[in-house]
Design brief:
The chain has about 200 residues and is of the alpha+beta class. It has 7 helices and 4 strands. A 4-stranded antiparallel beta sheet has the order 1-2-4-3, sandwiched between helices. The chain is globular, with a radius of gyration of 18 Å. The relative contact order is 0.22. The structure holds flavin mononucleotide. The site of flavin mononucleotide (FMN) has 10 residues, from strand 3.
Length: about 200
């Protein structure tokens, strides 16, 4: 590779963290294209490259706020039990404003009979992690979000996916949203739990 050292590679991995507060600065199209290109360098089952991405900006992004608020209503009770009050309030604000992120990306998986369902889903998530790491390399921040799944059908309609032939055949599925932009906060690193995660067999 020659350009980044072994050390820099691991630093980049460890520097990734979910960002939920953004500067209003727009992200140039060529930067968005670079991170999507990185996403699409991910491996995929049978090399089907079964990801589909929808990039949402401008008025369409503003329109999504209503949907984000709706997804919040579906998860807020669970989070109220899990989070301390200050973090709960921060998360609520995040769902109402999306942290001012100028760009939203929705990742879909094309699931067809030629590939195992979980392999299809996993392939797209590998691309999403590449995208997360490319954001770090670009000085961007992002947060991958499962919350849109709470209102899956509405998001499909919002993005026009319901008009797609694949949708009509039940072969395309929303996996996550990703909010991204230039970071406007530096949250503490979420601690990593190492116990009982790895089993070695020899
Ligand atoms: C599949 C997936 C779904 C997630 N959904 C949400 C979400 O809906 N809202 C949110 O604020 N964060 C979401 N996150 C971010 C996680 O909360 C975050 O990754 C985790 O707390 C660890 O923090 P870190 O990303 O800073 O290391 C999601 C992450 C993943 C991988």
């Amino acid at each position: 590779m020659g350009q980044i050292s072994h050390e820099q590679f691991y630093q980049l991995i460890e520097a990734r963290q979910s960002i939920r507060q953004f500067k209003k600065d727009e992200v140039p199209d060529q930067v968005i294209n670079r991170i999507l290109n990185a996403a699409m360098h991910a491996p995929s089952g049978k090399n089907r490259q079964n990801w589909r991405f929808f990039v949402v900006q401008g008025k369409k992004r503003d329109d999504y706020l209503t949907y984000s608020q709706k997804s919040w209503l579906r998860i807020k009770d669970i989070l109220q039990k899990q989070l301390k009050p200050s973090l709960y309030d921060f998360t609520e604000r995040f769902f109402f404003t999306l942290g001012n992120a100028p760009v939203l990306i929705f990742a879909y998986s094309v699931n067809t009979a030629e590939e195992n369902y979980l392999t299809s889903i996993g392939s797209v998530y590998m691309a999403v992690e590449n995208l997360n790491l490319a954001c770090v390399a670009e000085g961007l921040g992002c947060c991958t979000m499962g919350a849109p799944l709470e209102i899956k059908k509405e998001v499909d309609e919002f993005l026009g996916v319901t008009e797609d032939e694949l949708y009509k055949k039940g072969e395309i599925e929303l996996l996550c949203g990703i909010v991204l932009g230039y970071p406007d906060h530096k949250p503490p690193k979420a601690p990593r739990k190492t116990e009982n995660k790895i089993t070695w067999l020899r």
